[in-house]
Amino acid sequence: MQDLTKALVELIRRTSSDLPSDAEVALQEAREREVAGSAAQGALDTILENVAMARRDSTPICQDTGTPIFYVKHPVGWSTRALKEQIRAAIAEATEQTYLRPNAVDSISGVNSGDNLGDEAFPTIHFDEIEGDELFVELMLKGGGCENVGAQYALPNNRLGAGRDLEGVRAVVLDAVYNAQGKGCAPGVLGVAIGGDRGSSYARSKEALFRPLDDTQNDPDLAMMEDRLTKEANQLGIGPMGFGGETTVLGVKLEGMHRLPASFFVSVSYMCWAHRRHRMTVHGDEISYE
Amino acid sequence: MKNISLPITDDVIRSLQVGDSVLLSGIMITGRDTVHKWMIDTYIKKKRAPEGDDQEVYEAISPILEGGAIYHCGPVVAGLDSGKYRFTAAGPTTSIREEPYQGDVMHHFRIKAVIGKGGMGAKTLKACAEVPGVYLHAIGGAASLIAKSVQSVIAVHKLDFGVPEAMWVIEVKDFPAVVTMDSHGGSLHEEVEKHSSAQLSTLLTP
Questions:
Q1: pLDDT exceeds 90 at position B206
Q2: B81, B115, B204, B205: which to substitute to probe chain A, counting the most A Cβ within 10 Å?
Q3: Is the Cβ pair B143, A183 closer than 8 Å?
Q4: Is A176 in the B-facing interface, judged by CB distances under 8 Å?
Q5: Tens of pLDDT along B82-125?
Q6: Low-confidence ranges of chain A (pLDDT < 70)
Q7: B138: closest CA among B28, B22, B50?
Q8: What ranges do the domains of chain B cover?
Q9: Are A27 and A47 in contact (CB under 8 A)?
């Protein structure tokens, strides 16, 4: 089996320093919509300048390089135990190279491990065996500021008058955006899972964030609701950094799941504007990144 | 754009209004969750007696904080092995977590500028009027750009709190920020929250 450690360090470097083009284009479009000379436009100018600088210098876009969340899709025959060791070695090496900040803190003792390696869930790694002969590794770096403003609702919700339907989902998602204000580093992207149990629902809401910003949901009802929620979240007027303005979210991604008859969870994961995710493909000896 | 040097006089603080863009220059200290808890527990509420290097650190930071700035930031730092520290990424962290402590910390050390992101609440706004001081909003996530304004790392205290949580004494030049809470009771965060609350009610009214 190949040793992918070096290639994984490169994936981490790219994810930390090179904002994907869909996010950058969305930020540029957001800039055009803001009033010239406003604090909102100033914030977006600073953000775009920072994005270019981080890419040029291979420095982290944001100092909070977050929880590294890996999704590994591998053909039959790969050892997930060996892959996990390589990912952990790559994380420690990328931390040494300052592509990542040491972020793994023991919650009981308060001690920071210094190399970004914590327990089984830090970094987070999901494995999935797939057809074919290519191996894919997707990585997202999700910072603490935006993670803290994520929210999970159980429908019905009396306070918001939200029932167990898409209208109810709409109400709680808008409530989550309102509660986040600028604290998740707006303009953000929302990953929303509808259904599941508390755990699977949150996990799916993060997987939704891997979708390209300009894609369309296969389900026409969800596709319509995604557009509507993007428009309505922006009507809240929270704006970039919470300074007030036209763009509060860059996109909304909804995913439906099965649930128990008794439960109806809606999980909202908020991703900051630094929407850092990249994918690496291994095909024989060839390794490519996108 | 207003150029501000640290330490800041009361006159300069009083002249600042919500919405002003500023460029800060001088020496400031980073401090976030663990630092605020340490300050409160050891020196303000005195829940624990100083031990180890506590007193030494307190005496080192006090003159810098007097009239100065505290920055809610957990940086990425190069040169940890050699001790020749250099910031490579240094954007702000979310400030509201320090809301229970910030006002008391401002009063105790006579801090004039709190720098972070996301804004703070009523207790800190009150302290801004009394001390007087301002809340300066840096651009969240603009970490590479802000790191460029850090000219040098002068010292680090409490590195055992971890790199993100330590107190880094840094010299900055033209550090960019926006006044979002001033010493006259003004808060952009209150305004935006009020406006968005009204918009939410409208959207959710059947």
A1: no
A2: B204
A3: no
A4: no
A5: 999 999 999 999 999 999 999 999 999 999 999 999 999 999 99
A6: none
A7: B22
A8: 2-204
A9: yes
> Is it the case that residue B20 has pLDDT exceeding 90?
yes
CB contact (8 A) between residue B144 and residue A237 = no
Q: Which of A63, A114, A237 sits opposite B90 (nearest CB)?
A: A63
Nearest to A242 among B75, B119, B204 (CB): B119
* pLDDT (0 to 100) of residue A147: 97
The pLDDT of residue B200 is above 90: yes
Bridge-based pairing of strands B86-89 and B76-78 is antiparallel
Average pLDDT, chain B: 97
Dig out the tokens for A114 from the structure: 């210094």
In this structure, whether the domain defined by A5-15+61-143+276-289 belongs to CATH 3.30.360 is answered with: yes
In degrees, to the nearest 5, what angle opens at C-alpha A61 toward C-alphas A274 and A37? 70
Query: For residue A49, with 0-12 CB atoms within 10 Å meaning exposed, 13-18 middle and 19 or more buried, which class applies?
Result: middle
Q: What is the reported pLDDT for A146? A: 97
Chain B residues within an 8 Å CB radius of A143: 141
Q: Does the pLDDT of residue B182 top 90, yes or no?
A: yes
- Number of other residues whose CB lies within 10 A of the CB of residue B187: 20
User: With an 8 Å Cβ cutoff, are A148 and B94 in contact?
Assistant: yes
**How far apart are the CA of A48 and the nearest CA of chain B, in angstroms?**
9
Selecting among B36, B72, B157, B189, the annotated active-site residue is B36
Q: Which of B76, B81, B146, B174 to mutate to test the interface with A (most CBs of A within 10 A)?
A: B76
With bands split at pLDDT 50, 70 and 90, how would you rate the model's confidence at B162? very high
Report helix, strand and coil shares of chain B as percent, to nearest 5.
40, 30, 35
Q: Strand pairing partners for B28?
A: B170
Q: What percent of chain B has pLDDT over 70?
A: 100
Asked if pLDDT for residue B1 goes beyond 90, the answer is no
Structure tokens at B167: 């107190």
Domain residue extents for chain A: 5-15+61-143+276-289, 145-271
- B36: annotated active-site residue: yes
CATH topology of domain B2-204: fumarase (3.20.130)
Mean pLDDT within B166-180: 97
Number of A:B CB contacts under 8 A?
171
Confidence (pLDDT) at A1: 78
Using an 8 Å CB-CB cutoff, list chain B residues near A244. Answer: 188, 191-192, 195
- Identity (one letter) of the amino acid at A82? A
A:217-276 residues touching chain B, CB 8 A cutoff: 232, 235-239, 241-244, 272-274
